[in-house]
Amino acid sequence: MNPETRPFRVALDFGTGSLTPFGESLVRRLSDMAGSYADQAAVDSLLACGADPVIYRAYDAGVPHQPGHLIFRTTIIDAGTVGSEFFMTKGHHHDRDSAELYLGMSGQGLMLMESREGGFSSEELAPHAAVYVPPGWAHRTVNTGTEPLIFLAAYFADAGHDYAAIERSGFSRRVHRGETGPELRPAAAALGEVTG
Ligand code: M6P
Ligand code: ZN
Fold first, then answer.
1. 6 C-alpha to center of ligand 1: Å?
2. Does the reported pTM lie above 0.90?
3. Averages of pLDDT over each 10 residues, the chain, 196 residues
4. Whose CA is nearest to atom 2 of ligand 1?
């Protein structure tokens, strides 16, 4: 434990996701997420016409990355799609398998979770809901609504982020805007739709 860390409080704005007195710690644009979306032609045409939208941002409470501490941060995923696929986070495993807790603050979303053994689960993330990610489950958050999706996440300070497996093979399902609402589609089918 860091003996210099004193108890503290932050102000949470459930409407904007800001975490006062901290500033934005992360901004991810479409160009930062190469290969994440199924429809590469849609990615290319957005980038070619100069549109490199901010997909999500985070505010971090500045807790030290030392064992024993609990990191917590808010994330704001804007509303939108790339092709028909909703804006989402890159998604990751933790370097050291450990749990994470999500609390919905505003907007409507879906969490995709996948275990190293091939298990899959999806849970809605919205205000008044908390989603528990067990150790060993990769997680990606998708904004399925028309407003920003805002949530708080807390995880162990020594968890670490491992993006390699997700960058290599992605999640087994993707979330698309369908005729009547969000649709969870097998990733292979989503890719087939784009190329075929
Ligand atoms: C949440 C937490 C963070 C994560 C962020 C963005 O705030 O899970 O650990 O960094 O979402 O997700 P990603 O790292 O997958 O881009
Ligand atoms: Zn995580």
1. 25
2. yes
3. 82 97 94 94 95 97 95 98 98 97 98 96 98 98 98 97 93 97 87 42
4. 153
